[in-house]
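Hmm, what's this shape?
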Amino acid sequence: MLVIVLAVGLDACTQKRDAATDEADVKAALESFYAAMKKGDAKAAMAMLAPDAAFVESGRRETRQQYEESHLPADIEFEKDNTGTRGPWTITVNGDTAWGIASTTYDAATPPFVSTQLAVVTRGGDGKWLIRSIHWSSMRL
């Protein structure tokens, strides 16, 4: 009987998540995606995306495959050619779902602009956080 009580108690302890760790892990997943693009590593960028990921930009929705084939190469070229200053991520975690919002200012771009990213991230059964959706919205400064 004592063994069962201890096993149940240990299982309950391991299921509790640390909010600060979850926020840090979500931020790391998002930053890994952008770092891969900056390096020109399309494979590493795609590894951070869930199989059913969807993207929204300029009023259009893209599937993961559409993003990989058409939009990702342009994003990689942009990231390689431009340096922006990203503000802090605001991360909210709700169980195995999280969302992050950050703005990046591109002062040296012509014309200068700010891009705000809203990303939805989910934790899989393996504990890894993957991006399920990103919505980019930009405006000139």
Notes: The domain at 14-140 is CATH 3.10.450.50 (Nuclear Transport Factor 2; Chain: A,). Residues 1-15 have pLDDT under 50 and may be disordered. Residues 19-39 form the longest helix (21 residues).
